Amino acid sequence: MMNTIDNTAQAPKCLGECKGTTEECFHSSKSIQHLHNNNKKWREDLVKRDASLFDRLSEGQHPPYLWIGCSDSRVPAEEITGLDPGEMFCHRNVANLVVTNDINVLSVVQYAVETLKVKDIIVCGHYGCGGVKAAMDNKCVGILDTWLRTVRDVHRNHKEELDAFPTDEARYRRTVELNVKQQCLNIFKMNVVQHRLGRPDQPNIHGLVYDIHTGGLKELKVDYCGYFTKLVGTDSLHAFPDGEETMSLAHRRRNVILDLAEGLEKEPGMIRTRYMARMLKRESDLFSPGEVDEAIETIKAQMKDPQSSFMNIKDLIAYFAPMKPKATASWEAVEAVKEIQTLAWFATCEYLILPLDSYQVPALPSSSFNIDNMGDDRGASKHDHSSCIDHDPHSLQHLFENNRKWRDDVLQRDPEFFERTAKAQSPRYLWIGCSDSRVPAEEITGLNPGEMFVHRNVANLVVSNDINSLSVVQFSVEKLKVKDIIVCGHYGCGGVTAALKNAQIGLLDNWLRNIRDVCRTHKDELSQYTTDEERERRLVELNIQEQCLNIFKINMVQRRLGLYGSPRIHGMVYDIRSGILKELEVDYHGYIAKHMGVFRLHSFRDGKLPTTKPEFQRNMILNLVDDHEEEPGTVSVRYISRMLKRESELFSEEEVDTAIKAIQGQAKTSGSPFVEVNALVSYFAGEEAKA
Q1: Catalytic-residue membership of 493
Q2: Reported pTM
Q3: Are 136 and 171 in contact (CB under 8 A)?
């Protein structure tokens, strides 16, 4: 039997063999020591306020909200909404996109809707979004180009409206809003969301925008009903067979029956009784087992052949969703119905204009559909929602109240905070963590808005062909030049547990296959643990280490690691039961030695990780002269001087000029247009260069 994994915090371990002085060491974990200190203080403060909080959180998560927001370090979801750990499942990516073929975000939505049964889905963008600006400026930004194509599609579809704005700033702000609305519609079209919209536990979809200049949140109007009318023949809005959003119990039942029977009719209008009984009983929100049995018994008794294995779909609908008796009505009745629906937006009313014609008035949309684009950044609504039915009209109201309180507190401590952070973001850290509502990144690390770029998905994965997470890594490494990348998992991860138990959970299966690969690789080690809990905890740690290595192998990370020594990559695990963060050791040196011939770890020329400034300077010089040698062993002075001066993190302009002058003086080649590469390397590296 192996020892049980220690639950207590461990001192951070250096992830590389440090050489040289402290200033020269580019791989010291001291860079995240204050995160551990912040975590300790945060944990102690929470325990003082609520001694049983972590015990409750460890029992499971039941968040009412799913947040899909931007990775921007200035938009920390839990802080700006004032929600506590356990209240909001979270996914963050560049420009808060929901792309229909992106398994990363689709897995998050599936887990949130089907497993957690969240009540509200929030898409939140923000003014000053770098992703939106890059898309509109149409700059070539590598992998991000493909990811931001979704924003460019929004720009194209609304080009006439956007061109009417007099300034670029106004166009950027409007595009942010239009992008939020489009992502709301993308969620609305998703199969898993459509399937729940006609049920009692349907999630409400809200579009929010955050103003980094003021710290305020506001809600946007999204026209879902208009979307029905326009695109019901284009997009498969299969939960609404008539192309109308009908929300009464009878219509919900009718929609579910039609949805379950679609494509499974043995004869026109006939469905197998055994299949339908089994499927309806699974829909416990709408049908009780007793009701289903009674309905089938009643329908069978009225059939010519009660012993038949099939039943008529129309008979089943008539039993569960009977139409109201027809009666005459006048235009006054029409106006009365409209008045009812003004007060009760989800009411579905049937009435007659002529004795023989029946009409359905589609229900008006929910409060989130009818919010105007208000100037009030607190999100206060102009409408009175007090009479709404089938929907909690105030489901986001306390978020706006929390946001106002948070904003006031920030301004009281630092009146210039929002004005300062709105200019640009310069985060030191990239956090790749789980979407779990109990692991709020900024809170458990004690970091302020602007200090940490964030990506969160199910089980904190970094998949080599996932453009979502790769776009986040590219933006943070190449654009923001973060110094530290943190992969943080947590014990009690539902994604890891599902992967280990090989549970069949639809689309999410494909996403979790990456964890099953970790299981396969470490099968012998995991089999030595005697309990499921021990295996799950160890798999959480192994998964974190594997994701660190996946980041380590990414081309853009490799290049910066070999040339600058950053970003440093840290693996961390969070214990929900105690609130403690601890760091895991990841053997990058061993990985290089073992897999140099398999993966192109091209930045490490000698098969080892550079750790001192001279080594990084040497690598940079050799990298720059690749394919630029004028003659064997020499390079153009003009070219190498210009390129080295651009690398201000490693070379100063004065250093470069002094080096070239000294080398040419020693070789008695002053004024020559060329300089020897080996001599240049030796000057900066302080050692003889290898051939």
Answers
A1: yes
A2: 0.75
A3: yes
